[in-house]
C-alpha cells in the first residue's frame, strides 16, 4: 500500500548533532587533510557568502531610502540609514502625505499572523497529541479503522481539498450570517476561524506522535490507573510530559508552516484588516510594485520570527528536520 | 476486526473475529473516554479532509461555478476537457521542467555542502546556519527579494554580471521567455540546499566509521571511498530527499504567483498556479477540482515509480 510506504521513507535515525564550536567532528571517517583542508575552507566560505548575500542585501536595503536602494553601484551599507520603510509598512508613527501616497502596510498583519500561527500551533499540538495517545495506548472498537483513514489521507496533496474546503468554509452553519443549513452568509470566509480551524489537525503529526508514544511503557500508565488516576489525568500528567521533545519538534514546524502559509489565506481572506503578514506582503507587491523600501522592511519583519525560532531551537530544529523531513 | 483480545466479562468466550454487537457496544461504553480524546481531531478531520475529499470527487462530475446558481451534473465532461486541455498540458510540462531542474540541483548542492561540512573543521555550526538561513526564509519573502535581484534595470545580478563583462546587455531574467523558469529554479535551489544539507549530514553521520577504515586498509583513495561507500550508504537519504523534493516541487505556487504571475507567455504557469486560476479567477470549481485530481494522480504515479526503482536497485 502506498501510504504505508511513506513510513519506510523515514531517513536514518539521527545522532545528536554536535555542539557547534571548535570540537571537531567525531566521525571516524576523518580523511587525512593536508593542503586539502584549505580547499574545503575556501569552498565553504565562497558558498556561504553566495548564500548569505541576498539576506544581507535585504537587511541593508530595508534601512535605505527609496533613492538609495536604486543607486548604482548598490550600497551594501546604508549611507543614510532610515527606518521610514519600517514605519510606513507598519503604518505607525508620523507619516508625511507623500509617504502615505506611496502606500502603507498595516501592523495588524503581523498581529494577525502571530495570533493565527499561535492558535494553530497550540490547537494542533493538543488535538494531535490526544488522537495519537488513544491510537497508541488505548484499545477500543474502531481504532484501527479510524487510524487507517488518517493514514490513507497522508498521500493526498493539499490542493485536492483546497477547493472543496473553500466551499465548506463558506457554508459553516450559524457563522458569518449563515443559517442552520449553512446558507445565506459567508460562513468562516474572511475570518480568523477560517484561517485557524482547518489547520488544527494533521494526519502526519498524529502519525509521528503515535510512533513516539508507543515507546512509553504500558506499565507506567497501568500503575497510574491502579493509583486511581483517570484517563485525563494520565494524559496530562504522564503522557504529555513524556512526549515533550516530540511535541516541541512538531510544534516548531507547525508554527513555521502556519506563519508562512500563503495559498489558503490568499483564497479565503478579502478584507485588508485580516491579512496575514505573507498575504499582506504579497498583495502589496502586486499593488505597489515600486515601493521596494517598504517591501524590504516588511520582508525583514516577516522573516524575523522564523530566524528567532531557528536560533533558539536550532538543535531541535535540525534534529526534527532529519526525523520528519518537513520544512 | 473490531473484536478484541480481552474477553467480555459476563459472557462465555467466543471465537475471535466474529462481530458481536453487544460485546462491541459494551467495550465502546467501557472505553468511552477514548472517543472523547479523539473527538476534536476527528471532527476537524472529518470536515476538512474526509468530507472535503468526498466533495472534491462530487465536484469533478459537475459544472460548479460559484457565480451561477445552477450546478448541473455533466458526467465525465470535466475529465474529457482535462485530457484535451492544451494549457493544462503546458502547465504539466512547466512543472516537470521546474522539478527536473530544481530537485537534482538542490540535492547535489546539499550533498556537496554536507560532504564539506562533515570534515573536522572549525565553525561548522556557523557554516551550517549560513547555508540553512534561506530555508527558514518564508517563500513570499524569498520571492520578493529575488524579484528585486532579477530586476533588469537595478537588480544586483545584472549589475555585477555587466561589471564582470560576462554579459553585454542586461538580461531580462523573469521577463525573458527562456530565462524565466531557470530563474525560478535558481531561486528554489538557493532556498532548498540548506534542507538537503541537513538531511545529508544526518545520513553521513550514521555511516559506520569502520567501513572507511577497512577501505583505507584496502588502499581505497578518497574518491573511491566516496564512490563505493558514501554514496551507496546514503541511498535511503537520497530516496527520501527525492520523494519529498518532488512532492514539494510539484506544488510550487507562491514563488510563481509573486515573481512572474505565470508569465511570460505561460512559461512559468505551473500546475498549482493553473488550478488556482481555474478555481479563483474563472470560478470553475468543478473543473479545477478535476485538475487537482490530475495533479494527485501524477504525484502518485511518480512516487510509486521511484519506490519501485529503489526496490529494484536493492
Number of separate strands of chain B: 0
Categorize the overall geometry of chain B. Answer: globular
What's the architecture of the largest domain in chain B, going by CATH?
A: Orthogonal Bundle
Task: Give the number of helices of chain A.
Answer: 17
Helix content of chain A: 55-70%
Query: Mean pLDDT across all residues of chain B, rounded?
Result: 89
What is the annotated CATH architecture of the domain at 108-289 and 317-324 in chain A?
Orthogonal Bundle
The rounded Rg of chain A comes to: 25 Å
Describe this structure in words.
The complex is a heterodimer of chains A (327) and B (314). Chain A has 327 residues and is mainly alpha-helical. Chain A has a domain at 108-289 and 317-324: Orthogonal Bundle (MetI-like fold). Chain A is built from 17 helices and no strands. Chain A has helices at 2-8, 36-62, 66-69, 84-90, 97-101, 108-137, 143-152, 158-170, 192-196, 203-213, 218-226, 231-242, 244-260, 263-268, 277-287, 292-312, 314-324. In chain A, helix 13 (244-260) packs across helix 17 and helix 15 packs antiparallel against helix 16 (292-312). Chain A is globular. In chain A, 40% of the residues are buried. Residues 1-31 of chain A have low confidence and may be disordered. Chain B is mainly alpha-helical and 314 residues long. Chain B folds into 2 domains: 23-79, no CATH class; 83-313, MetI-like (MetI-like fold). Chain B has 14 helices and no strands. In chain B, helix 4 crosses helix 8 and helix 8 (180-205) runs antiparallel to helix 11 (235-250). The longest helix of chain B has 32 residues, at 86-117. The model of chain B is unreliable at 1-8 (pLDDT under 50). Classes of the chains: A mainly alpha (327), B mainly alpha (314). The interface between A and B is large, with 112 and 121 residues.
Amino acid at each position: 500500500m502506498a501510504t504505508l510506504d511513506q513510513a519506510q521513507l523515514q531517513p536514518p535515525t539521527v545522532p545528536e548533532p554536535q555542539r557547534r564550536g571548535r570540537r571537531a567532528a567525531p566521525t571516524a571517517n576523518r580523511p587525512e587533510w593536508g593542503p586539502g583542508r584549505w580547499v574545503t575552507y575556501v569552498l565553504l566560505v565562497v558558498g556561504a557568502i553566495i548564500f548569505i548575500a541576498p539576506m544581507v542585501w535585504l537587511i541593508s536595503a530595508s534601512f535605505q531610502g527609496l533613492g538609495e536602494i536604486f543607486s548604482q553601484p548598490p550600497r551594501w551599507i546604508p549611507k543614510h540609514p532610515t527606518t521610514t520603510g519600517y514605519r510606513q509598512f507598519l503604518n505607525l508613527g508620523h507619516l508625511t502625505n507623500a509617504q502615505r501616497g506611496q502606500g502603507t502596510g498595516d501592523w495588524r498583519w503581523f498581529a494577525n499572523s502571530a495570533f493565527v500561527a499561535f492558535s494553530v500551533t497550540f490547537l494542533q499540538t493538543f488535538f494531535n497529541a490526544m488522537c495519537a495517545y488513544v491510537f497508541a495506548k488505548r484499545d477500543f472498537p474502531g481504532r484501527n479503522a479510524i487510524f487507517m483513514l488518517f493514514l490513507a489521507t497522508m498521500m493526498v496533496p493539499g490542493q485536492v481539498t483546497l477547493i472543496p474546503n473553500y466551499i465548506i468554509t463558506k457554508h459553516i452553519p450559524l457563522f458569518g450570517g449563515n443559517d442552520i443549513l449553512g446558507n445565506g452568509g459567508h460562513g468562516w470566509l474572511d475570518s480568523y476561524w477560517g484561517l485557524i480551524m482547518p489547520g488544527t489537525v494533521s494526519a502526519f503529526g498524529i502519525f509521528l506522535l503515535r510512533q513516539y508514544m508507543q515507546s512509553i511503557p504500558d506499565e507506567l500508565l497501568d500503575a497510574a490507573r491502579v493509583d486511581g488516576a483517570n484517563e485525563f489525568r494520565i494524559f496530562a500528567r504522564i503522557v504529555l510530559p513524556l512526549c515533550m521533545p516530540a511535541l516541541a519538534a512538531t510544534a516548531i514546524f507547525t508554527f513555521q508552516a502556519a506563519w508562512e502559509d500563503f495559498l489558503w489565506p490568499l483564497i479565503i481572506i478579502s478584507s485588508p484588516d485580516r491579512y496575514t503578514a505573507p498575504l499582506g506582503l504579497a498583495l502589496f507587491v502586486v499593488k505597489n510594485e515600486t515601493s521596494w523600501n517598504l517591501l524590504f522592511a516588511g520582508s525583514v519583519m516577516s522573516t524575523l520570527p522564523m530566524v528567532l525560532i531557528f536560533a533558539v531551537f536550532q538543535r531541535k530544529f535540525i534534529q526534527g528536520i532529519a526525523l520528519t523531513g518537513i520544512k | 476486526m473490531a473484536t478484541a483480545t480481552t474477553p467480555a466479562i459476563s459472557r462465555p468466550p467466543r471465537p475471535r473475529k466474529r462481530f458481536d454487537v453487544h460485546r462491541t457496544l459494551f467495550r465502546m461504553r467501557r472505553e468511552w473516554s477514548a472517543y472523547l480524546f479523539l473527538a476534536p481531531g476527528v471532527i476537524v478531520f472529518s470536515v476538512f479532509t474526509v468530507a472535503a475529499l468526498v466533495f472534491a470527487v462530487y465536484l469533478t462530475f459537475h459544472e460548479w461555478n460559484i457565480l451561477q446558481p445552477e450546478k448541473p451534473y455533466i458526467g465525465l465532461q470535466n475529465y474529457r476537457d482535462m485530457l484535451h486541455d492544451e494549457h493544462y498540458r503546458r502547465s504539466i510540462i512547466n512543472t516537470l521542467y521546474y522539478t527536473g531542474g530544481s530537485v537534482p540541483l538542490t540535492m547535489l548542492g546539499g550533498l556537496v555542502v554536507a560532504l564539506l561540512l562533515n570534515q573536522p573543521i572549525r565553525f561548522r555550526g556557523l557554516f551550517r546556519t549560513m547555508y540553512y538561513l534561506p530555508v527558514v526564509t518564508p517563500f513570499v519573502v524569498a520571492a520578493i527579494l529575488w524579484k528585486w535581484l532579477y530586476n533588469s534595470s537595478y537588480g544586483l545580478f545584472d549589475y555585477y554580471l555587466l561589471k564582470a563583462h560576462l554579459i553585454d546587455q542586461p538580461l531580462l531574467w523573469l521577463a525573458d521567455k527562456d530565462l524565466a523558469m531557470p530563474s525560478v529554479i535558481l531561486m528554489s535551489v538557493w532556498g532548498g540546499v540548506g534542507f538537503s544539507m541537513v538531511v545529508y549530514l544526518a545520513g553521513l553521520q550514521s555511516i559506520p566509521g569502520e567501513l572507511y577504515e577497512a577501505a583505507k586498509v584496502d588502499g581505497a583513495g578518497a574518491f573511491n571511498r566516496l564512490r563505493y561507500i558514501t554514496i551507496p550508504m546514503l541511498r535511503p537519504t537520497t530516496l527520501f530527499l527525492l520523494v519529498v523534493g518532488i512532492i514539494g516541487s510539484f506544488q510550487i505556487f507562491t514563488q510563481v504567483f509573486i515573481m512572474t504571475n505565470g508569465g511570460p507567455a505561460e512559461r512559468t504557469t505551473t500546475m498549482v498556479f493553473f488550478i488556482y486560476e481555474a478555481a479563483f479567477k474563472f470560478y470553475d470549481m468543478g473543473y479545477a477540482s478535476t485538475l487537482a485530481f490530475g495533479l494527485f494522480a501524477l504525484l502518485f504515479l511518480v512516487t510509486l515509480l521511484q519506490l519501485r526503482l529503489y526496490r529494484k536497485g536493492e
